[in-house]
Specification:
Length: 403
Amino acid sequence: MRFIFSLLIIVSAVNAFTQDLQTIRLSDKAEISVLTCSAGENLYSSFGHTAIRVYDPIVGLDETYNYGTFSFRTEGFYIKFLRRTLDFKLDRTSYEYFEKTYRRENRSVKEQILNLNQQQKQNIFTALEINNLEENRYYRYDHFFDNCATRVRDMVFITFDDLIEPDYSFIDSSKSFRDLITPYLKNMPWSHLGINIGLGSPTDKCAKPYEQMFLPDVQYRILENSLIKGNKPLIKKSQTLFDTSFEQKDNYIPFYLQPLFVFGVILFFISWLSLHQIRKQKINYWFDFALFFITGLLGVLIFFLWFFTEHGVTEGNLNIVWAFPLHLFISFMLFSHKKGKFLLSYIFITGLSCSFLLIGIPFFYQSIDTRLIPIFLIIILRSFTILKVEISKKSRVQVPFAP
């Protein structure tokens, strides 16, 4: 929102700024276009990318403006990324360098030349130059609401004011933000699962057509058939600048390494182990220690993302029901010789909570990843086993030996 407000100020004062910055005056041969890049093989590039190209053969200008730049060398990178305090920046490079980068990554680049008049071209170019000043180029990235695609979207829509008639005909307005990112993560099942665990209920809100333009390829399709009032096409020309041979393949990871299969195998083993321990009335707590320790660590992360970050979309997360931070402390209590009322009550509540979570999956406002069902069953099964064995121990009558 702050970016839109700033952009409005920039556009309204563009002529004054042009003189101060000594911005190049574009010729009537200049073209401004939206560049849409296909997904890459890394997680951070799996959703594609959007940039703006300014091309003017008369003045010898061919630059790209890229709002998706960040540096791994930033001090405290991972903590800042988790907390959403990592600043991204606008980066200006030559188009030649930009294309070489995407050729090297084997990612296609498509171009949509905007149907602009001369003043609109100059306004966008000047706004980009002002945005590229050191004091303006940094911004607080938000994957859903303020990213490389939304910044380009805002610049295009504000340039045309209310003259654009966007083509939302293919948009499914019933899809949530979580639904929208799912297809892009199909070849990264463990990353997808981790993201689903970390995202809270706000992600399950239905995304409006305008909001769905945070995805570069969705934005491309919307712009492609949008009109300017008066039945003029928004896009003057579309072309593929570089076509890729990279294609995402289904089952990128073998089925036996998929989360559901791995968790299913663990569930099968734990079912056998639990039955064996109930018969023997004896438990080795090392597995339970690992179960509560790992889910406790996940709970700490969920709690951190919920209360100590600026993401917004990680709040109200029902996954904290099964991955509760206190599990971390409880994991060490399992080795105590005597299992007191507090510990047994906690384990009972844990098993009961997971049971309610399992039953309520179809009804909750938050979408719970169904690949976690074996984990819920493991927690329920181990809670029942611990209670069964420990309560049986306590109920035994100890008969003193009489000579």
